[in-house]
Every structure is written in structure tokens, then in C-alpha cells.
Sequence to fold (701 residues):
Amino acid sequence: MQSALSPASARVANQVISAMAGPGAELRPDQEEAVAALCVPGARVLVVQATGWGKSAVYWAATAIRKAEGAGPTLVVSPLLSLMRDQVEAASRAGLVAATLNSSNPGEWAVIEAALHQGRIDVLLVSPERLANPGFGTRVMEALAGRIGLLVIDEAHAVSDWGHDFRPDYRRVAAVLARLNPSTPVLATTATANQRVTDDVADQLGSEALVLRGSLARTSLELSVVGALAPIERFAWVVEHLPILPGSGIVYTLTVSDAQRLTAAARGVHGEALQVAAYTGQMDSTEREALEEALKSNRVKALVATSALGMGFDKPDLGFVVHVGSPPSPVSYYQQIGRAGRGIDRALVALLPSESDERVWHHFATATIPDPAQVERLLAGLAAYEGGVATVPGLEAETGLRRGRIEMMLRQLAVDGAVERRETGWAATGQAWAYDAQHYEGILAIRRREAAIMRAYVAGEACLMQLLQSSLDDPSAAPCGRCSVCAGRLPEPLVARPSAEVVQRVKSLLRGETVVLEPRKMWPGGAYGARGRISPGEMAGEGRVIAFADAPEWRELVQEAFQGDAPPSPELRAAAVATLSRWKRTWPGRPEVVIDLAAAGYTRLAAGLADHLAAAGHLDRATLAMGAGPHEVSEMGSGEEAAYWQQALEADGPCSAAVRGRCVLVVVDATSSQWPITVAAAKLRRAGAKTVLPLLVHRRP
Fold:
């Protein structure tokens, strides 16, 4: 392929770059090589370069050149909504018309699609999920058939199931490639592909694909590990450091709950003097976009975020990234810290590892691997539907499998051709499915290797940047001379431990937070039998949770309380009374009778806590009879677990007389699913209870 642009093409490209980056800006030689390669009909180019290298500049310049030559619009496939918004703005500065079709702007789809048909759009950015949508394929992809001027696959590592962020819907790109005019150039870009992923993506592009790979070192980043902190100390460390960290930045947590609680702690300690906000995938797109803009304009010091704020967020002067807990992959970690230091000389990056990281790594390592027995169960459930088309909620009721697991398996099965998505749901294609044990064992082996690298990173066994580069098979990996391992110390202004005063203040603040337990509203079907909405006369009332999941302020108390089946400690009894004191301002009626429910088998804990609350509140006591059976139900599907509790719990006899016409407080030791609470509430309501208010000691993750 040619190695340089023609003078005319170079002028067009540099006009675009100067419009985007400022007067006098030009393509660098390595960027020009990529653009020149894309000017060859039928080119297939894979660019693997560090975050901040300027991969988007390549496809904007190539688009402008192709447009000048009379080619059709560029189609960019990207999972990054924030990047899409940035790119639409960048295109307008470059004199190009760009638009995006994704889940955040359905109200604009009709107008954009009309403009596309009329040839008034130069660049269309779409999410991989759009490609998987049958309606989109009919309306848009058929309209573009044969006239796409350039296809861009952004974050191309997600095409490969060997990658850290494989997205089954991304495999729809293969269908686009198959229908593509053979003369249309294709560009794939990523900053996070090891050699195996690079080879896989290049192979999917075609045997003649040109791979342009550069060094992945980031000289502006000062990497550090701050270890040996208890869970509550990690929160306190962040709260104490936020005011003195440079500029504005991102604090990553592994869960939505941690993001919300850490934000609450920072606000509680610093008040209006420090602006911080939580950012999670549970927020709608409008709220997330507003928070991104607030960070870009430095109206907030930090966003406390889950991985929902990962790829595609572009703030060149981001001054710091802190992780509370280690991501499961050094590749995803490299990707997230790559948000910092793109346009400044120095940015601080700190990792605060957790002792529970290994459990999280194991979950992510296996979450996308299909279980053959569950797949067969899902396919059987699909076949049971009249007409052969089923919705995800319908399959949940039919199979008893959890909804998130069903959604993941359907996407995997679609990749393998066994199912297909239709306008009204999912249907089997008739193609046989077989579990490829060798393939998936290979994927697990890679993920175990990544976990070993993260373990070495946390332990500081080598230069931190070198370890990250090595995880991506970067041949230029070498000691950086700047990280906490190379320097032998934490950089200023980081310290190893937070003050005892801040630790105590954060703990007290968070223990005062109210955690609401929303009642389940639907029966699961499956083995339980009943499906559909739970009637108001059977539903539990809104409850309260003392300790939620891995909440750091309760971690030590939870470990002590559930170490063995012992009576509740004075600390736990006090916490329960404090929870009720806050709750009484909003409950529908004062409890009159207390019932214990040892859903996880901690009989003495549940009964002891119920006894204490009954004595403290002058309430009657009653017991919900429980038949013999296992308390370990974590592997059961919703239908199976609900059926188990339906058989195990008995609300007749003395219990029925005690609850009739009264408001009942049910003290529950622990559950993750809420099915014991849901079934118990229904039985108590049928026995005549006026209201059932659950108090859950530990909502398990």
C-alpha cells in the first residue's frame, strides 16, 4: 500500500486537522501512513495505538478525502455514547455533517434517517446494538448498501471474544463486512488489544489487513498502588485526598452501591466546598451527559463512577484517576486510566486494591462463558413458546433462569447462529448449538493470565507501566522511571494511610444512610407456578436494610455477625434500633408484632435480634414455622427458589392468630434474591396480616 498522501489529499486532510486541533496542526507521519493506506480501494487497516494518539483524527481525515473524491458517507460503529457526542461536535468544526443513532436519542432517529436517505449526512455513528436491531437493519443498512464510503470499527478489540471487553453484538460487524462493497476501505481502531486479539481482529478484517501498531507507554501518567487499607479506610483515603489531587478527575468503583456511598461520604465530609457526583449505568443518558459536561468544564472536582464511564470520555486535562478496588483485567485498567493526562504533562493514577478483588475477578472471568446445561434449558424454553418468539421476561418465567444471565446467553447464541433477534423478541434459528470447550478454556486461560498480571501489579513486582504494556504484548515495554515501584515511594501529595479522624467520620456518616428494600412486584413462574404481578394483598411493604452487600462501613460487623450462628452483638442490636428509629417517620403503621426469618440459616442471630426489638419496642413476638431443607439457594433460579420457600415456610397455626389484622415486622438474617421475604410476606398477608415490613440485616451481593 502507498506510504504517503498525494498533495491534494494532504491539503484536504490537514484542513480537517487544523479545523479540529487549531491553526497549523497537521497529521503526524504515523497518522498520515494510516490515512494514506485508507485511500486505497478495498483497504483493510487495523490501528493499535495508545489512548490520546489521535485515532479519530485518522478517520476524520480519511472521510474528508473520500468525500472530496465523491464517496458516500462514513459509518462508524462504536459502543461509546460520550465519544459519539464529542465526534458530532468535532465533525462540525471540520466542515462535516455527522449524526448518531443510539439508545440515547430515539426521538431523533426519523429525522436522521431521512437526512441519510437524502445524502445530507457525511458521517453516521451507530452503536453495535443498533446493528443487532432488525428494524435498524432494514431501514438504515439497506439504505446504505453499496454506498458506504468508509467503515470504521471503533474499540475493535470488542469484536474478539479473546478480548477483555467482548460484546456479542459487535459480531454483527461481520455481517456488515460481508455486504460491503469490496472497494470500500475499512478502518478498525483500538488502544487495548494484545497480540492474540490483534491477530483475531486482523483475521476478521481479511488476510491482506495492514496492522499499524505503536508503543502503548503513557509518559504523562504517574502510577501508584496504595495497599494494606481496610474497606472503610479506602473510602476515607479518597475523601481525604480529593481536595488536594490535581485538577479534576475520576474515582472508579467496582459497584453502583460503592459509587453512591463514596459520593455520599465525600459530600458529607466536605459539604459545598467540594463538588462530587456519582456516575453509573443506572442513570439515564441525559443525566450522564450532564455529568460528563460538568466534569469537562471543571464544575465538579470528580465523578465517582463505575465502568459505565470508561471508554470514549475525552477530557485532555483530566488530572487524576483513582480506583477503589482492582478491575479484573490489566487491559481494562489501562483503558480506564487512559482517560487521564492526555493533554497535560503530569496526571496521578492510584489503585487502592481490595481483599475482595479476587472474587470480583472470578465473576467477570466466567460471566460471559455459557453454561451448557443452562443454554439447553434456555433453548427448550424458547421452543415451548407458541410461534417460537419469546421475550426475555417470558423466558425468565419459563426457565427460572435469572434475567441478566438470559440476556447474556441470547447474545452469545446469536453470535453462534442458534438464535436471532426479531422485532417482537427472540427466536431459535434451527441451527444446532454445541459447547466449544476448547475455545472457552482458552479464553479462561487468558483471563487467568490477566488476573496474575493484576496480582503482580498490586504487589509491585515490577514497573507498573511496564506490567500494563506487557499485558498488551507491547514489544517496547520497559521501566517507566516514574511509578511508585520505580521511584520507591508514593508521589506527592499521596500518603499511605488516611487519618483516624476521617475514617471514623466516614463510617458514622455512612452508617446513618437509609437503604430502602423495594418489594418484588412479579411472581417468577417456572417451578413456582404462578407468574405475573403480585397482588397488593400479598405484597410486602417497603423494607429497610442494615448492611448492603459489601458496604465498607459494615464490613467488619457483617464478618463478625455471620462467622457462626451466634446471638447478635450489642453493636448489631444498636444498629437495628437506629434503623427503626429513622424508618418510623415513613412507615405506614407502627409494628405490633415481630417475626424472625432465618433465610440464610442464622437462627440465633435472627431470633435474638427479633427478641431485642420486641423488648425495646414493647411488641409481641411470633415465629414463622420453617420446614427442614437447605438454606443454600444461591444457585437456584428464581422459580426454583420461590418454590422452595413456598414449601419451607408455614404461616398457619399460632403465627396466623398473632398476625391477623396487625402490622408485622419481619427480621431477616440475609438474602440476595429477596424470595424468602417475598414468599413469607405473601403467606403472612394471606393469614390476615395488615402490613408486612421487612428488616434485612444483610442484603448479599
About this structure: The domain at 371-434 is CATH 1.10.10.10 (Arc Repressor Mutant, subunit A). The two ends are 53 Å apart (CA to CA).
